[in-house]
Every structure is written in C-alpha cells, then in structure tokens.
Amino acid sequence: MESFSTLIRTASREQHEEVRGSTFISDLLGHRLGVDAFARYTEQLWFVYGALESGAERLAADPVAGPFVRPELFRMAALEQDLEYLRGPDWRSGMDALPATREYARRVTECARGWPAGYVAHHYTRYLGDLSGGQIIRDTAEKTWGFPVKGDGVRFYVFERIANPAAFKRSYWELLDAVPGDELERQRVVTECKRAYALNNAVFEALGEEFPLSA
Fold first, then answer.
1. What contacts 24+ positions apart, CB below 8 Å, involve 168-174?
2. I want to staple 206 with a disulfide (CB 3.0 to 4.6 A). Which of 5, 100, 107, 110 is the partner?
3. What is the pLDDT of residues 5-17, one digit of tens each?
C-alpha cells in the first residue's frame, strides 16, 4: 500500500508545479521585479503564517495535528524582522492583505478550528515548501537586492533551528505516514493539499496583477 506521504506528494505534484510556474514567481526569480514586489509578497506571507501559527497552540495537544506543531518551524518572528527591514519601523501601519490572501488565511483558520487533518494539509504545503523551494527565493533576493546572506530581509527563509533539512524532511514524511484516519479521510487531506496550492497560486496571480512586468 502506498504511504500517505507518497500519496500526498504524487497527488499534488501538478498543483505544486503550477505554483512554481506562476508568472509572479517567474518574474521574481528572473530578476525582473523590484524589491517592492518582494516586500509585498512578504507582507502576504505574514497574514498566512499568522493564521497557521495562531492556531498552533490550540492544536499542540491534538492527536492528529499536535505532532506537527514544531517550534523550530515557526516563522512569524522572522517575518516581522524582515518586514521591519523592508518597510521600516512602522511596517504594521501599511499592512494590507490582498483578497486572495484573506481567503487563504480564512481557510487555514477554518481548518485549525474544526479539522486538524486539514490543518496538517496546509502545514505541509507551507512549511515544507518554504524549507525547500523557498531557498531559491532567498538566494535570488540576496543576489538581486544585496540583502545580507541569511540576514535581514530574508530571515523568513532561514530555519536556524533545523541543522539538517534533509533529515528533518524525512522525519516529517514519517509524521505524515502516521496520521490517523481511514482511506476516505486521507483522500480528503489530499484534496485539501490541492486546495492549499490553489489558494497560494491565487495569491501569486493577484501579486502578478499588482506587479505586471514593468519593474
């Protein structure tokens, strides 16, 4: 029988590729957008991770989601350091979530409150995505705008408490394989993973409209 982690990775591969191929990310990685676009994206991450991490404490003792609540993954403190660097000390006063971001955060909150396995789907797509592919964005930002290596502006992408990302990801796959639930529930979680990718892609589409290729 196929492991749950393999099922998730296989079933959501197409949506993952769509996110990686979004126009906004392609332009960002292609050095065709300015630092303001990067800062705007960082702002949207703050809203999404706020939803993920505000629900974490409540879920810490949950038998399904609890094992995934790992403080070494938490990103909000790093995001706020980055935003202060990118936007200045009054960064909070100018924060504005795109409608697509609000919908994304709303769904994360909804799962955190009523469906722990669904929360795991969002946890997986975000944290493992930024631990892996996010490093490409960090490297691009450092080279394009001269940010300090693994420093201000890109701290979000630096998981200082994870010494061996490959080993951490292996342990994460094991956690996914141990998630309790029958086949129907597993399929629901896979569907939620696809939804998470779609919500993320909608944010990229909105950012692409806000930052057409002109910078």
1. 168/131, 169/128, 169/131, 169/132, 172/5, 172/68, 172/124, 172/128, 173/3, 173/5, 174/5
2. 100
3. 898 888 767 766 6
Is the distance from CB of 32 to CB of 215 less than 8 angstroms?
Answer: yes
Q: Is the pTM here over 0.90, yes or no?
A: yes
Note the pLDDT of residue 20.
61
Which residue is listed with tokens 């995505």?
Answer: 129
- Residue 65's alpha-carbon distances to 56, 61, 204, in angstroms, are 9, 8, 27
DSSP type of residue 148: P
* Best CA proximity match to 56, nearest among 6, 111, 1, 136: 111
H or E element: which one contains 150? Answer: none
The residue type found at 64 is: V
